[in-house]
Amino acid sequence: MKLLTFTVPCYNSEGYMAKCVDSLLAGGEDVEIIIVDDGSVDATASIADAYAEKYPSIVKAVHKENGGHGSAVNMGLEHAKGLFFKVVDSDDWVKETDYMQILSALRELAGGEKALDMLISNFVYEKEGEKKNKVMRYRHALPENEIFTWKQVRHFHKGQYILMHSVIFRTKLLKECGLELPEHTFYVDNLFVFEPLPFVKNMYYMDVNFYRYYIGREGQSVNETVMISRIDQQIRVNKRMVDYMVENKAKLKGRRKLRAYMVNYLEIITTVSSIMLIRGETEEHLQKKKELWDYIKQKDRWLYGRLRYGLLGNSMNLPGKGGRKISVEGYRICQRFFKFN
């Protein structure tokens, strides 16, 4: 059995996927790299096949009809043979020195008395045009270099959450929790790091800058203009997260820190949905914003109160055109401070 499976979802990635795959090959025979060609119409498929032919014991090329990022992740998970599982987007890459430390830790933890469910590491925003890149690290919130549970998790800062770039899951956990991401939908990475959490018992954090998250490619899904044009998909993900919180109330009962973390993460996602709808600047966008908040209220009044009357919820629901202008400016300040898109 391989130690770690990487799934690399690719759609028309011919211009940059080699940098990603080459960085992963440094793991040698310990790793399995599944390149999922999601119905590309450029040279992605032939590049994937060339890697599989050159590295038959490491790389597997899977070809499928276009179904979107979530569909490609689902396919990678279905084929995964590694003990652990990680998604690396085709325009991102990993840093070799930190990669070697990650593999060393996984080897050691794989044989431990407690099953490791989730390993967390830092990621770096490789933002086009920025001289200094922002590092998302977790050392103030998580114990370092030791197995820990949710009870030992400390406070996360606003705007700081465990993202897809940060995590390596135990493969069997993802399969047993029934994770299946929706097809033809962007922003499903939020579900990938949300829905498995109630099943995660043991975690391990390494303060290494392993994952390099590239921001700045034209047409990238996190580009603000693109996000506004795809706002219905953002709302779909947002609502599914609300549904998941409501449906799993019993599973979260008595797990105070886990529930608090998940509510705070949902708060951020709802804030992003709200600000993008405000930035849409049409009556239709504002109506969709009202409908989203009404949906949350109808689903669970406690959750609605927690999201609506917190600092972020209040700032996203200021009355009138002037209020919306203040909301956008507040978002801009956060954008500059946290360096996100």
Tell me about this structure.
Strands 1, 2, 3, 4, 5, 6, 7, 8, 9 and 10 form a ten-stranded mixed β-sheet that branches. The model is unreliable at 337-341 (pLDDT under 50). The radius of gyration is 20 Å and the shape is globular. The protein starts with a strand and ends with a helix. It has helices spanning 17-25, 44-54, 69-79, 96-110, 171-176, 189-192, 224-229, 231-247, 249-252, 256-280, 283-299, 301-308, 311-315, 320-338; strands at residues 4-10, 31-38, 59-64, 84-87, 93-94, 118-127, 135-136, 147-148, 167-170, 203-215. By secondary structure, it is an alpha/beta fold.
How many strand segments?
A: 10
Query: Which strand-content bin applies to the residues?
Result: 15-25%
Shape: globular
Structural classification: alpha/beta
Termini distance? 38 Å
User: N-to-C SSE series?
Assistant: EHEHEHEEHEEEEHHEHHHHHHHH
Unreliable sequence segments: 337-341
How big is the Rg? 20 Å
**Biggest beta sheet summary:** 10 strands, mixed
Count of runs of 4 or more consecutive helical residues:
14
How confident is the prediction overall: mean pLDDT? 91
Assign a percent range to the helix content.
40-55%
